[in-house]
């Protein structure tokens, strides 16, 4: 089974000069239950369907299956997503032989910036860029599926769920 092994950190410092590329991402969750998720994503005009299993190793690894799908199909699947959409810009930052994915969140999660690094083994060493702050690997509050239910800007108040509107899907399909 394919495994995703990653560590996640809050960002604390100036990372922007190190960015190699950036892309806007919209993603929603068809299902998010007991650590298992079915996610649909639109990124750079491409669609993806991802299934993730529950976390293991204290949140360090989990089963992950991803398939590229037609963007029109992804747009249709977005209509099934509950609780809105995660809106973020992903910045790729190469550092010391690894690529850190720095996610800058928008909308209800505005102000949250996290960095993830994917590893081939849980014990794999990696250079720590100066912008990395506190490690939050395994802290469920920072899972995207949890940010849908409890947005960063309103962690004190659980936000009500809802479905994606046709307008939101159309805007993302057009790349707005």
Give a summary of the structure in a few sentences:
The protein has helices at 71-78, 144-149, 166-174; strands spanning 3-11, 21-33, 36-43, 46-56, 61-69, 86-95, 98-105, 113-118, 132-135. The protein is mainly β. The chain has an 8-stranded antiparallel beta barrel with strand order 1-5-4-3-2-6-7-8.
What does this structure look like?
The chain is mainly beta and 176 residues long. It contains three helices and nine strands, in the order βββββαββββαα. 13% of the residues lie in helices and 44% in strands. The protein has an eight-stranded antiparallel barrel with strand order 1-5-4-3-2-6-7-8. A hairpin with a 2-residue loop joins β6 and β7. The C terminus is likely disordered.
Q: Give the ordered list of helices and strands.
A: EEEEEHEEEEHH
What is the general shape? globular
By DSSP (H or I, 4+ residues per run), the number of helices equals 3
Low-confidence stretches: 157-165, 171-176
* Termini separation: 36 Å
Over the alpha carbons, how many angstroms does the gyration radius reach? 16 Å
Number of strands: 9
Oligomer, anyone? single chain
Q: Tell me the fraction of residues in β-strands, as a range.
A: 35-45%
Describe the main β-sheet briefly.
Answer: 8 strands, antiparallel, barrel
């Amino acid at each position: 089974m394919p495994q995703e092994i990653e560590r996640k950190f809050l960002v604390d410092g100036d990372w922007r000069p190190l960015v190699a590329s950036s892309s806007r991402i919209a993603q929603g969750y068809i299902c998010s239950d007991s650590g298992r998720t079915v996610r649909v994503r639109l990124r750079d005009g491409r669609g993806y369907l991802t299934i993730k299993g529950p976390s293991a190793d204290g949140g360090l690894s989990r089963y992950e299956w991803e398939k590229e799908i037609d963007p029109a199909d992804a747009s249709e699947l977005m209509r099934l997503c509950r609780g809105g959409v995660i809106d973020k810009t992903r910045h790729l930052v190469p550092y010391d032989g690894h690529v850190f994915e720095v996610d800058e969140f928008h909308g209800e999660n505005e102000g949250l910036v996290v960095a993830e690094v994917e590893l081939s083994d849980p014990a794999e060493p990696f250079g720590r860029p100066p912008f990395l702050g506190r490690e939050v690997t395994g802290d469920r509050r920072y899972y995207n599926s949890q940010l849908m239910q409890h947005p960063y800007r309103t962690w004190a108040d659980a936000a009500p769920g809802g479905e994606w509107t046709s307008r939101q899907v159309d805007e993302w399909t057009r790349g707005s």
